[in-house]
Structure formats: structure tokens, C-alpha cells
Amino acid sequence: MARLGLQRALDPAWIDGLFEQERETQYTRELLFSTTVEIMSLVAVGLRPSIHAAAKASQSLPVSITALYDKINRTEPRLIRALVQGCANRLEPVVQSVLCKQPLSVPGYRLRIVDGSHLPASEKRLKPLREFRGAALPGQSLVVYDPDMAMIVDLMPCEDAHTQERAIMETLLESAEPAQLWIADRNFSTRAILTGWQRRGSAFIVREHGRNPGPSELESRREIGGIETGLVYEQAACIARESDTPLELRRIELHLDEATEDGETVIRLLSNVPATHLDAQAIARLYRKRWSIENMFQRLESVLNSEIRSLGHPRAALLGFGVAALAYNVLSVIATAVKSCHELDAGEIEISPYYLATEIRAHYAGMMIAVPAAQWQADDTLTPEQLGRMLINIATHVDPRKLRKHVRGPKVSKKKGYVAGCVARRHVSTARVMKNGCVD
């Protein structure tokens, strides 16, 4: 299933055609862009520990490893974004066929959850960084996630890790379409972004920032009712626009039963979704889906090798993150097929991406040795519906209990308190502590 998914998502002919279409200053001489992406995908999935190891094991690398790194370091952000978008477009019909036209979370809308992801500090292999004592951040990305398909559908990479996410969002707004419902946190609560979505015909649910966009109240708030986490209020509001009539919005207030980690007891949401489509309580519940993108980021980091710390060059690090996003989409297609085949949505078993990736790492290399590459070529001609049926047929042989996710209970918060440095740094014998039940 992993091979079929990767074969559909990373078709070499499609990738090389995309390169010729989207490239700006790069060109193809001996090394194809599809070869570069294939090597990077081996590292992202975890089949190889590094690009150097993947390149040495590759039988199709026509250039030196130095030339490979030069190619990776010059990969343009625009090309990375086109690669992620194109991969999602190629896999979406397959997912739809597997889901068998499962209804959307919000009828009439395609959900889009947007959030930023900063790459962690890289190793200081680049000469300009060797004398720098602080952390060197290679870049960041704005990621657009579709929770209904559990796929990353867009990714806006940025080489400057200190660029404000709102500035990157200006380019991403151009891809917004009608019948899309965007969900975002308060960092994206600005007049420019909200009016941009409105101008593109998109709906939105955004948490209101304390200062931006400063909506004016049009009526007194009224109590709507309670939900699982608190009491919901609603009122009409508007924000001014420079050369147009004010943008009228709905302000939803959720008064929480328990304060957040930051001590907040009230969450305010701004939305342009008509009340005939979603009531205030539904909007308050729907905003909680925003946390699905945080879970996705955590899986990208823990399940896949999305943060290759040896890649200090911004463009190389962003390419690694983009290819990891492609691999995540393939894992999501596999998980969707397994859930659909065994009807896990109605049960208590949830597929763990970690165990799924572990199974792939354990068996993928041996399968590729046992099965000649020529035998996979016939699957290139499958339609999305045929590929979806094949994935479901293979999924019948999967034991979902071996891939089930074990949910841990909530952590109990404990204050550590202050101790002297000599106490914090001293060594103890674990065996003696366990035997005596206390630290000597």
C-alpha cells in the first residue's frame, strides 16, 4: 500500500514536468528533480538515516553527492509549494473513492485549517554559522490542512524564519476559493486577512485577537446555550474597510467552564458563515477542530523525519519538510483505507501513524528487493477508483489491532519548585533509589 501510494504521489514523469513548469533559475542537466525528491523521500519516511546514506545506496544517481547537495540547496520555495499542492491533487480522488462519498464535516464547505510551523535549529555545518553561539533557524512554513481528508493540501515555505506569519499569509490568500471554510487562530485575525477571505468568497472562523481587527459591536450579546466546554453567546459586529462598506461579522463568545493553560476564560470567534448554515454552538464546536493541525505537526515530527537537522541551508531544510508532508499524505491514504475496510469509525480502534510507519520501515526495503521494479509499472495506469479499490482489498489483510493507537490519560500537573543547584546536579544510583524508596 505504501508503494502504491508513493508511486501515485511521486510519479517521476509528473515531477519532472512540474519542475520544468515551475522552475525559475534552476535547470536540468544530468540530475533530474524526480531523483532528488526520491532520495529525500527515503530520508523523510525513515528508510535511510541521512541524504548522504540515501545517495550512496541509490543506483540511479548520475552525479556526485556534492552535486546532489547543490541541487537540493537551490530548490526554489515556489517549486516546493507546487510539489505539495500537486501531490494532494493526485491523491485526493483516491481518498474520495476510499471514503465512498462520506459526508463533509460542514455540508457545502471544504474545511481548511491554516497554521505556521517553524523548523527547529539546525546543526551549524554552514561556515557563516560556526562562530554563532545562538540557535540558527533554517525557515518556516504556513501549512493548510484538510481534516476531512486528513491531508496537507497546501504549504507556503519561507526561508526567513523571523518573517511574520501574517506577511506570508498574503500570498496564501490568493488560493482561497468559494465554498471553503478557513479556520485559524488569533495570529491571523487582521483586517487584511479577513477581508481577503471575504473578497475571495471564502468563509472563515478565526479567533479574535485582543487588538486586531477591533470590530465594532452592532448589538448587545445574547445567550445562545451551552456546549461541552462552556456557555455560548453571540452578537453582530463589523470591521471597517478602506474603500467599501463595513464587513459585517458574527462574534461568538465561549465562556469556558475551565480556564485555558494561559488562564483565559473567554474565547471570542469572528465568522462570516451565515446563521442558516451554522449556528453559534456549531461554530464554537467546529473551532476545536483547529487542534487537529497541531496533532498533525506532532505526527510529522515524531513519525516522519520532517526536521532534518543536518540540513542548515534554508531551501534544503524546506524541501525536506515539504517531502515529509508528501509522505504524511501517503500514510494518511493508507490509514483511511484501513479504517474504511474494517469500519473503524464506528469502533474504538484508532490507527496509530507511528505503528503504521514502523511497519513500513520494517518491510519496505525487503519488498523492493523481492519484487522487481517492472512489476509495479502496470499500476501506473490505474484510475483513482481502481487504485482505491486495490488499497481496500489489500487492507483486508491488515490486522488493525496491531496498528491501534493507545491513548494516554491526561497528565497530572506538578510544580517542581525551587532547589539548589548542587541538589539538582548531583548523581544518584537508580537501583538504590528504587530499593530504598527515597534519595539518600
Structure description:
The protein folds into two domains: 2-76 and 310-403, no CATH class; 105-294, no CATH class. 41% of the residues lie in helices and 17% in strands. It is built from 15 helices and ten strands. It has helices at residues 2-9, 12-22, 33-45, 51-57, 65-73, 77-99, 165-172, 191-199, 280-287, 291-303, 314-342, 353-370, 384-395, 421-425, 430-436, and strands at residues 110-118, 140-146, 151-158, 180-184, 203-207, 216-217, 222-227, 230-241, 244-256, 266-271. Strands 1, 2, 3, 4, 5, 6, 7, 8, 9 and 10 form a ten-stranded mixed beta sheet that branches. Helix 11 packs across helix 13 (384-395). The longest helix has 29 residues, at 314-342. The radius of gyration is 24 Å and the shape is globular. The termini are far apart.
Q: Mind telling me the C-alpha Rg?
A: 24 Å
Which residue ranges are poorly predicted, with pLDDT under 50 across at least 5 consecutive positions?
none
Order of helices and strands: HHHHHHEEEHEHEEEEEEHHHHHHH
Strand share of the residues? Answer: 15-25%
Q: Which outline best applies?
A: globular
Percent helix, as a range, is: 40-55%
Number of domains: 2
**Gap from first CA to last CA:** 55 Å
User: By helix and strand content, what is the structural category?
Assistant: alpha+beta
